[in-house]
Design goal:
Radius of gyration: 14 Å
Number of helices: 4
Keywords: GTP-binding, Nucleotide-binding
Distance between the termini: 45 Å
Order of helices and strands: HEHHEHEE
GO molecular function, one term: GTP binding
Number of strands: 4
Largest sheet: 4 strands, mixed
Domain Cell division protein FtsZ C-terminal: 35-108
Structural class: alpha+beta
Protein name: Cell division protein FtsZ C-terminal domain-containing protein
Organism: Arcobacter sp. AZ-2023
């Protein structure tokens, strides 16, 4: 059985305490989508982020923590090494071959 890795209010407060502009990214993707294609819309924001809260929702049948490791590695490569990163993983009855990704980005420069 898959275990959820839950994020709570304290995790949100930690990320939001980084100040700056806040952005949210959310989407549904296919298991065979590359990290670059999933993260492309927020690549620039990731470079300047001071805080990230990353939540994955995985299918009960298709994905495991090992499957999202490549996404977290890519996020860590792009994001400033001093940024706070918190992640959670949830399992639901999603359509086979899909997953959801929800990212809260804080500490961005004001435009």
């Amino acid at each position: 059985m898959n275990e959820n890795i839950i994020v709570d209010d304290a995790d949100y407060k930690t990320i939001l305490s980084k100040g700056g502009r806040v952005e949210r990214f959310s989407g549904s993707f296919h298991n065979n989508d590359s990290e670059e294609s999933v993260l492309k819309p927020i690549m620039n924001d990731l470079k300047y982020a001071k805080g990230l809260l990353v939540k994955f929702t995985l299918s009960n049948e298709d994905l495991s923590l090992g499957d999202i490791e490549k996404f977290m590695i890519k996020i860590n490569e792009i994001t400033n090494k001093d940024a706070a990163i918190i992640f959670g993983v949830y399992y639901e009855d999603l359509k086979a071959g899909t997953f959801k990704c929800d990212i809260l980005i804080s500490g961005l420069p004001e435009n």
